[in-house]
Amino acid sequence: xxxVGELALQPFEDLVRKNVRVQGVWVSxxxxxxxxxxxxxxxxxxxxxxxxxxxPLGEATQALATxxxxxxxxxxxxxxx
Length: 81
What we know:
- The chain has helices spanning 11-16, 30-42, 44-48, 60-68; strands at residues 53-56, 75-78.
- By secondary structure, it is mostly helical.
- The longest helix is centred in the middle third of the chain and has 13 residues, at 30-42.
- It starts with 10 loop residues before the first helix and ends with a strand.
C-alpha cells in the first residue's frame, strides 16, 4: 500500500509538549475491511449483542473504567447527555 499523504510535524511542539504517543497500525488491505463491514451488516443482530454498555461522551472516564475493570465486552460512547 502506498503512502496516502504527508504530515508536517514538529516533534517537540506536537508530541513531547503534549505528551502524545504515536502508534502506527497496518491493515492488510481495503478488501479485508470491506469484507468485515459486509459481514457485520449481514449479521447486525448478532454483532449488536456484543455491545454491553453505552455511555454519553461526557462519561468517557467512567466508560474507560468499566472496560479496565473488565465489566464490559464492548462499550460505545454516544453523543448527548
